[in-house]
Specification:
The structure holds two protein chains of two kinds.
Chain A (H helix, E strand, L loop, with lengths): L2 H17 L6 E9 L6 H12 L8 E7 L2 E3 L6 E3 L17 E4 L3 E8 L8
Parallel strand pairs in A: 1-2
Antiparallel strand pairs in A: 1-6, 3-4, 3-5
Helix pairs in contact in A: 1-2
Chain B lengths: L1 E8 L2 H16 L3 E7 L5 H9 L8 E7 L4 H7 L5 E5 L8 H8 L9 E5 L16 E7 L6 H4 L1 H6 L2 E5 L11 H11 L4 E4 L8 H16 L6
Classes of the chains: A alpha+beta, B alpha/beta.
């Protein structure tokens, strides 16, 4: 239910970044969202549509990369994806516990813009 | 096509405010905890039992969050400590700005401990840093023992998991060993306390945890 606040935070960042670059029209915002970040993508997309509708950001697309939950085994150093909490032993050396290293991300990775015509890069 | 690398946390603004709060707590030796649970797990009861055990030598302040009503603040105010209700008006979590705003007229140098009772919700509050020293998740035995698996984020981020209402264990099919195992699966090494706010069982251990954690956070020095 906090997805609308998250959408608003994303838009605030976009507005700030955009203000620094007058004349550039952003078309896509890249997000990195972990599988266990507690964010529902459908709600986020819905919230995003609601707050950008009939604004200059209406066409700004969200490009969402889901980051898998990964654990690391401190005994053998193996890093593996966790799909289920019944599979937390290290698949290589069977050690337990193993420790979470990713999957909680909630980040804005990039903004993408079409080059304005006639501008050399 | 050109790409601007942003690489910022979505909740960057909240994070900045949370770091400022953390610094202010450090400057004034204030120990801050953020209590999170589903509605009805007993956060307010735990705060009542906690406040009644503190002598007036320690200044314990409480910020209690709910979507509506001042009920919790009224319940907690009778212990004589500073208590303020944060009514979010619909928002499902507390954020650092709300904490900053509600702390504005409390001089931090007069506080020793700040207990923040988040809005009852196991999902959203886990995303918002409030500048606290530790998050505590409260689970009660009338809920399912698989809650840590269903809501891993908050169990992963909490230093301590409290299993509340253990006086009801004879009447409910709650497998406490399984609950402990599930907490450890999601967060290996997470500290766990079992207690009952009704019978008082386990509350001494909770008060000891609180004191030791506070010493770790702000040092054992008491205010002159």
């Amino acid at each position: 239910m906090h997805e609308l606040s998250i959408a608003t935070s994303i838009l605030e960042t976009v507005e700030k970044e955009s203000a620094k670059r007058p004349g550039i029209h952003f078309e896509k915002v890249g997000l990195r969202i972990g599988e266990v970040a507690g964010v529902d993508i459908d709600s986020l997309t819905f919230g995003w549509e609601c707050i950008t509708r009939d604004t200059v950001w209406q066409a700004l697309e969200l490009d969402i990369e889901r980051v898998p939950r990964k654990n690391r085994c401190d005994d053998c150093g193996h890093i593996f994806e966790v799909h289920d909490y019944t599979e937390l032993n290290c698949p290589r050396c069977n050690s337990f516990p193993t420790f979470n290293i990713s999957g909680d991300e909630l980040e804005i990775a990039y903004l993408e813009a079409e080059e304005p015509e006639g501008v050399e890069t | 096509m050109s790409r601007v690398v942003v690489e910022k946390k979505v909740l960057n603004e909240n994070q900045i405010l949370a770091e400022q709060l953390r610094q202010r707590y450090a400057d004034h030796d204030v120990f801050c905890l953020n209590l999170i649970s589903s509605p009805g797990s007993g956060k307010t009861s735990l705060l009542e039992r906690t406040l009644e055990r503190f002598s007036r030598d320690t200044c314990v302040a409480v910020l209690t969050g709910d979507i509506q009503t001042e009920n919790d603040a009224i319940r907690l105010a009778r212990f004589g400590f500073p208590v303020k209700q944060i009514t979010t008006g619909g928002t499902c979590h507390l954020d650092a700005r709300m904490i900053e705003k509600h702390l504005a007229d409390w001089p931090l140098e007069t506080l020793d401990i700040l207990l923040v009772e988040n809005v009852g919700n196991l999902v959203c509050p886990s995303s918002y840093d409030l500048g606290e020293h530790a998050k505590i998740v409260v689970l009660s035995v009338t809920e399912g023992e698989d809650k840590p698996l269903k809501y891993p984020s908050i169990f992963f981020k909490s230093e301590l998991a409290i299993i509340n209402k253990i006086d009801l264990l004879p009447y409910v099919p709650f497998d406490i060993a399984k609950a402990r195992e599930n907490i450890q699966k999601v967060h290996p090494g997470c500290e766990i306390l079992e207690l009952s706010c009704t019978s008082g069982q386990g509350l001494d251990a909770w008060m000891r945890w609180l004191e030791l954690r506070r010493e770790k956070a702000v040092g054992a020095t008491s205010r002159p």
